[in-house]
Amino acid sequence: MQNDIVLSMKKICKTFPGVRALHDVDFTLRKGEIHAVMGENGAGKSTLIKVLTGVYQKDSGTINIEGADGEITIRSPQEAQKYGISTVYQEIMLCPNLTVAENIYIGRYKDPIIQWRKTYKESGKILESLGIPANPKQQLGSCSLAVQQMVAIARAVDMDCKVLILDEPTSSLDEKEVKMIFTLMRNLRSRGVGILFVTHFLEQVYEVCDRITVLRNGELVGEYEIESLPKVKLVEKMIGKTLDDLSLIHKKEEAYKEDTAPAYEAVGLSSNVCTNSFDFKIYKGEINGFTGLLGSGRSECVRAIFGADKVSGGEVRIGGKKTRINKPIEAMNKGIGYLPEDRKQDGIIEDLSVRENIILALQVMKGFFKPFTRSEAEAYANEFIKSLGIKTPSADTPIKSLSGGNQQKVILARWLLTHPQYLILDEPTRGIDIGTKVEIQKLVLKLAEEGVSVTFISSEIEEMLRTCSRLIVMRDRSIVGELRGDEITQDKVMSTIAKGSERDEE
Amino acid sequence: MKKLIILALSFVLVCSLFLSATAFATADEIVVGIVNNPPSESGYRDANVKDFERVFSAENKYSAKTFYSIKNDEQLNAAQQFITDGVDYLLISAAETTGWDSVLKNAQEAGVKVFLFDRMIDIDESMFEAAVVSDMAKEGQLAVEWLLAQNLDTYKIIHIQGAMLSDAQIGRSGAVNEQVAAGKFELVVQQTATWDEAKAKEIVESVINSKQEFNVIYAENDGMARGAVAALDEAGITHGKNGDVVIMGFDCNTWALEEVLAGNWNYDGQCSPFQADVISEMIQSLEKGETLPTKIVISEERGFDAATITREDIDKYGL
Amino acid sequence: MKNDIRQSGRSRNDFTQLLIPIIAIVSLFVFNMLRDPSFFSIALTVNNEGNYVLAGNLISILNSASELAILAMGMTLVTSSSGGQDISVGATAAIAGSVFVSALRNGNITPPVVLLGFLACCAVSILVGAFNGVLVAVFKIQPMIATLILFTSGRSIAYWINGGATPTVSSPIIKAIGGFIPGVPVPTPVFIVIICCLAFFLLFKWTNLGFYTQVVGINQRAAHLNGINSTWIKILTFMILGICVAIAGCIRVSRLGLINHETILAEIEMDAILAVAIGGNALSGGKFKMSGSLIGAYAIQALTTTLYAMKVSSMEIKAYKAVVIILMVFIGSPVVKDTTNRLLRKLTTKKIPAIIERS
Fold first, then answer.
1. CATH entry 2.40.50.140 includes domain B19-133+273-288
2. Is the Cβ pair B223, C263 closer than 8 Å?
3. Mean pLDDT over the full length of chain B
4. Which residue of C has its CA nearest to A363?
5. Which phi and psi (to 5°) does residue A425 adopt?
6. Predicted TM-score (pTM) of this structure
7. Which parts of chain C register pLDDT below 50?
8. Which of A280, A477, B12, B237 is 20 to 30 A from C300 (CA-CA)?
9. Cβ–Cβ contact C307 with B under 8 A
10. Interface of B with C (CB under 8 A)
């Protein structure tokens, strides 16, 4: 074994009933490196991490860690901790109502009496040395998400950690915040901590990582130096086919006609959370998008269109006819579908089956007294499981046991089943693997060709550039610009956001 | 805000003054403060409250202030308030036997004469004029004496108890337990149904299902006796005056006395809730300047036998 | 073959949820079998009205559990939709029973009068249910707190309706409802439970009540975004529980032809909630299985009847019940459930090859 290797896993296997989650997977982590584990959803990343942190027991294989003689078995997260393996998850698992210092030290006091002064002083030191802009006495909940995430990392690092696992720590942060996390990661790397980094953002991988291990279908594809693996190759390795598919995605320029009445039009629309009233329209077969930074009001706007929040004013026309949409059911009955931003909180009914999740919206539209028969529901579900390629053991499987991407496909199926005239997709590709992302983008274009109007929201501007023929740019909860055709480039979007106030010149 | 509160408080004060003024409007009325348990407590209490309302009415030249609670501290407050209001007599059926010392002392100092009814208080006899109390143990004794007088060949008893450790349960169970200890009675089962009619039925059903013999059902209230009888009816076992099983109940609800009259039940005992007349008589004699002969008056307990009950008994004593 | 696996997967899921109540009932039966085999004897006897009726502990269990079973079904729905429990069912039953009795005491007791009385009592309990439902769904008060209002005041209201007495009614019709219909040897409440089960079955088949209730209970925000009016669904479940309460109250009143506001269905709310829990339903709401609650209700009654048959001393009976309940809840706890699931899986995965060989 090389000297600088801190962790090595060899021939790890793990099987769940009916699923081979990991098969002969090797993983090696060196001192002072940031090592990305990449793969589509269901490739085995989470299982690998869970084996490493003692949540699951491996079926076979060996794990060696620096500082422990010979092979080790990790039976619980506490044991993992003992061996110096710490984990920071996507969702922050700290107590927002305690102070920063308390959060760093919680559950770790060895003395029966807590020495507050010492606690504050030491946590102050840790924060300072890691360059985390937080006061130890500050309540954690009052910090930004990024700082909270950094505190979580600080807590993990302070527990004598050799191996730090970061499981999608950046997925709910904006670009500036991500930069802060990266600085912290580099800082830790220079101290010799081995970091295992899991993310869906390819750009982030290329920004901070030294090495990449790619998994596919529970098997090891390979370990690569970052320089030797261009982005396109990485994606190919992850999805297991060449990337010609991606280039196939081409939006049709202005495939819709603007001389007819818009499929949907709103004037002066506002809701109790979207207080700045806005105008908006979309034509048949058009794909447009709302773009802007997180919190710029994109979701609030589309929620107002769907009637998800209390609509407080404005006029709505569908196909030129004046109408009202105050409740989701009214929007649904007028042919509008809405895939919400927060899949877990707003989308899935986690304990119910895939079948029930798929038929939900159509069932509600059909009416309380007209339930689908079991066979009807099953037929609908199987149709979409097949056409969208939803990976599920059966239509009866609870949706919560599916991977994120497949859950998203189920929600998508739910709305496609209602055959909407106008479909709103709010961050449909967040937190899902690249293969599914491409599939969803293709689907959106196909829908538009069939005459469905689509509003597409994504934090990844690239995705928007590829699909949308009109981009509505938002800043600080109001629309600051509209780009179309050739104007739609990353630079133009950025500059529009930046000089939002000069919109009047246009 | 503060001003508002003061304003409201003074308004309440004025109102209460006004109300108490009206209470003393006619001079020849005797003002009594009655502290009792709420009528919803039981059928017994309901009859008790109604009895006091009937006797201490305006027609009988009384002005009555009443307060009902099962909480001792609330009762104490109310009693103190009545003393402050200047009632002539204070009639108390206490929720608990302790804690009354200072209030009764205040009453004595204020010249308010105190009567206790239904329940005793742990206090020196000099603190009250008289106490008219129920004797639950005597009530049970009476019933058991009646049962022994029936001269049955055997006494195989299903004993359905009330809520354990309630006064009525202790009183009504005591006499039975004595006879069991003496070997005169044989208990087939002794089980609490917590005054619940349906539970009583289940208990008897269970005995019937296990095919044990019994010839007496001693239920500690009418409702439970009714439940027991329902179980017998379903199993085709005869009961009452000419039946196989002797049915005994307590409380003397009107409907229960009807059952006794019809011969479906054999006996119904009563712990008399009617204490108002006795107290009223005592108050009248005190008003005339006479002294009371006794401090403790045990209110009369009754039992009705299917063989001797009359329609008049039902009209007079039925709750 | 593939289809077969899916089928077996579904039934295994169902089975593990129903496992606990079934284990509870079976172990009680086995215990009684060892203790006294005659516990199960059923006899055909003639009652005092000259009709043939069935009698025995099993009949007693089936009969006495009726009110609990009906309430447990309603409670399951409320639990699912609101993630909380209605603790006012006993007190509401007292109100409902009082309304029923006062309606009957106003004249001759004929079938239409009984029906009218029942409808009046349904109306009142639906109203009470709606009141609770509005507090929970509109004012977002914790169900236990919201229903605490009627839990504390309900029996006083019943007292007020009764005018402070324990009024009685006697009529062959009432006897037939609470006891036996002449010529039918099975107690009528058993049939009423069957009718209720059937009603729920059809309700779930003909409407989306079950589906919507679960969606609302699992994820209210998603329910809203999919056009479900969760406020209304919650109120509806409370109103349906109201109907269950009315039925249970009427059965209990009819059993003895008497309403005692203090004792009628006293403490039944705890048993009903327990039945829901034993049935493997999460008390925090969401997915539910009504058959589980139903079996749970009969398990609780079987326990009570067993304790009565054993003549457990009156003071100890609650303690024994508590021990058994702790045991049941322990068996039903997620930790133990997971372990048994894992064991089951191991067993079934071993068995699969054998099945293939045979076929």
1. no
2. yes
3. 85
4. C208
5. -115, 110
6. 0.78
7. 1-11, 351-359
8. B237
9. no
10. 39-40, 42-43, 46, 50, 161, 164, 189-192, 194-198, 201-203, 205-206, 208-211, 222-223, 226-227, 230, 232-238, 253, 255, 319
**HEC per residue, A178-216:** HHHHHHHHHHHHHCCCEEEEECCCHHHHHHHCCEEEEEE
**What pLDDT is attached to residue A355?**
95
CATH at C264: 1.10.3470
What is the residue range of C70's domain? 47-311
CA–CA dist A453, B272 (Å, integer): 84
Same fold, B19-133+273-288 and B136-271+305-317: yes
The amino acid at residue B300 is E
Q: List, in order, residues 6 or more apart from C261 with CB less than 8 Å away.
A: B40, C94, C98, C155, C158, C159, C162, C166
Instruction: Please report the ipTM that was assigned to this predicted complex.
Output: 0.84
Identify which of C165, C252, C304 has the shortest CB distance to residue B43: C165
Q: How far apart are CA A238 and CA B288, in angstroms?
A: 109
Helices of type H across A59-137: 77-82, 100-105, 116-130
The domain segmentation of chain B, as residue ranges, is 19-133+273-288, 136-271+305-317
- In angstroms, what separates the C-alpha of B224 from chain C's closest C-alpha? 10
Question: Chain C residue with minimal CA distance to A304?
Answer: C225
- Residue C54 pairs with which residues in a beta bridge? C44
Do the chains contact at A350 and C219, CB–CB below 8 Å? yes
Q: Which residues of C touch B226 (CB under 8 A)?
A: 256, 258
Going by C-alpha positions, the residue among B149, B101, B162 that lies closest to residue B128 is: B101
Q: How do residues C268-325 score in pLDDT, each as one tens digit?
A: 998 999 899 888 888 888 899 999 999 999 998 998 889 888 888 766 777 887 887 7
| CATH H-level, domain B136-271+305-317: superfamily | Response regulator (3.40.50.2300)
Residues above pLDDT 70, as percent of chain C: 91
Structure tokens at A136: 């130890």
Angle at B15 between CA B12 and CA B19, to 5 degrees: 135
With respect to residue C320, please indicate whether it lies within any of the assigned structural domains: no
Residues A72-118 pLDDT 10s: 888 888 888 888 888 887 776 778 888 888 888 876 666 667 778 88
User: Nearest 5°: CA angle at A385, between A381 and A387?
Assistant: 115
Interchain contact, A396 vs C6, CB within 8 Å: yes
B66-125 pLDDT, tens digit per residue, is: 888 888 888 888 999 898 888 889 898 888 878 888 888 888 888 888 888 887 888 888
Domains identified in chain C, total number = 1
Q: What percent of chain A has pLDDT over 70?
A: 91
